[in-house]
Specification:
Blueprint lengths: L1 E2 L1 E8 L1 H9 L9 E5 L7 E2 L10 E5 L3 E8 L2 E8 L10 E2 L4 E7 L16 E2 L13 E8 L4 E9 L5
Parallel strand pairs: 4-10
Antiparallel strand pairs: 1-9, 2-7, 2-8, 3-5, 5-6, 6-7, 9-11, 11-12
Length: about 160
């Protein structure tokens, strides 16, 4: 296990969320996006969908996962990262001694019945790709004081990472 960072920001405005999601310290290439609305999901995309913002969503890459969810007075944001972010990003650390490790993972097939409106995977040009084309992994975040895994993030990598 390696040391990691779990942090939050609360009550972000739409403009602040858009700035954060577009920040190059967060949107490290290649990044993937998954947006959720009450009536559909975006599927996994390599470009931020034009329909952004969404009520919920996530951005993930080899370094971090950023999750957001709209609440009554703004967006709540969770950062699960391999390393401490710049203080300029404004995240408050979640108490705990955070460690991380990566594990294998698999995406759903595009015709998965859990998603009645379909589930797609798109490359940087918006073209449909096989889920196997995205080297997805899971990253476990564990509090070393309790040995409890509290968060499972999506990440990308290869078998040699």
């Amino acid at each position: 296990m390696k040391n990691g960072f779990v942090g939050v920001r609360e009550k972000l405005s739409l403009e602040a969320l858009q700035t954060l999601v577009g920040d190059q310290r967060i949107a490290i290439a290649p990044s993937y996006y998954f947006l959720r609305w009450s009536h559909r999901v975006s599927g996994i995309q390599m470009q931020l969908p034009e329909e952004f913002p969404s009520l919920e969503g996530q951005l993930f890459n080899a370094e971090l996962e950023l999750r957001w969810k709209y609440r009554n007075s703004g967006y709540e944001v969770l950062l699960l990262s391999k390393s401490l972010p710049s203080s300029e990003l404004g995240f408050s650390s979640v108490p705990g001694e955070w460690e991380w490790c990566d594990r294998h993972a698999h995406f759903y097939d595009a015709d998965e019945t859990k998603f009645p409106k379909g589930f797609t995977y798109q490359d940087a040009n918006g073209q449909l790709v096989s889920p196997k084309a995205i080297p997805v992994k899971q990253r476990y975040f564990r509090d070393s004081q309790t040995a409890t895994i509290h968060f499972v993030a999506l990440t990308v990598g290869n078998d040699h990472d």
